[in-house]
Write a structure and sequence with these properties.
With about 200 residues, the protein is of the alpha+beta class. It has one domain. About 45% of the residues lie in helices and about 20% in strands. The protein has 6 helices and 8 strands; from the N terminus they run E-E-E-E-H-E-H-H-E-E-E-H-H-H. Strand 2 and strand 3 form a beta hairpin. Helix 1 runs parallel beside helix 5, helix 4 packs antiparallel against helix 5 and helix 4 crosses helix 6. The two termini are about 25 Å apart.
């Protein structure tokens, strides 16, 4: 579920999610925990005077390791349930909820998969009177940053299914923010809501 993002510094780059496994998101060469990226978006939306924050960036291998582990968990679940011809509705609902949680949530400490290591600090700076934002070496206009922010909070093209709390909070923060950085995306969200009514 890649989002092609127009940047001011590098032209079009791949962003959004790598695949249906949405624990990690990307921007060009950077890989971020989706939750952390959404929390940074929310932080900037809620703090009008804040012009800087930081994100922990990872090597893309962090995503592929997580994606492999996720698919192995799914395969184990399928094998465990293979002996039953049908699942009770309550167990089926619990299974679906478990899969969604594995897909979207990162455990803060999980043995070798400690989300805080190894990574590198990526500076995030609002620039040009809030008309652009610098995420590491990538300059993104406020319009395209807003679209990427909305895309992540919505769970990409197909949505979260059952949105994690951090995504819902991020979307509300974007919609309620009064800062210039999010003005364009607020207007686009309002226009799309009017069209759907």
């Amino acid at each position: 579920m890649t989002l092609i993002l127009k940047t001011e510094s590098h032209g079009e780059v791949e962003s959004g999610f790598y695949a249906a496994f949405m624990q990690f998101a990307r921007l060009g060469e950077y890989t971020f925990a989706t939750r952390h990226l959404c929390e940074a978006i929310q932080y900037l939306a809620e703090n009008n005077k804040t012009l800087e924050t930081k994100l922990l960036g990872y090597d893309p291998d962090k995503f592929w390791t997580g994606s492999t582990a996720y698919h192995q968990k799914i395969a184990r679940l399928i094998l465990e349930q293979a002996g039953q011809s049908t699942l009770p509705a309550s167990k089926e609902a619990g299974l679906k909820k478990q899969l969604e949680q594995w897909q979207t949530e990162i455990h803060i400490k999980d043995g070798e998969d400690d989300v805080y290591s190894p990574g590198r600090i990526i500076p995030v700076t609002v620039i040009k009177e809030e008309q652009s934002i610098l995420i590491g070496e990538y300059e993104v206009s406020s319009v395209h940053f807003g679209r990427m922010s909305r895309y992540l909070a919505n769970g990409g093209l197909f949505g979260w299914g059952n949105p994690p709390q951090f995504a819902e909070i991020t979307m509300k923060a974007i919609q309620n923010s009064s800062r210039e950085l999010y003005r364009s995306i607020r207007e686009e969200i309002k226009a799309s809501q009017k069209r759907s009514n």
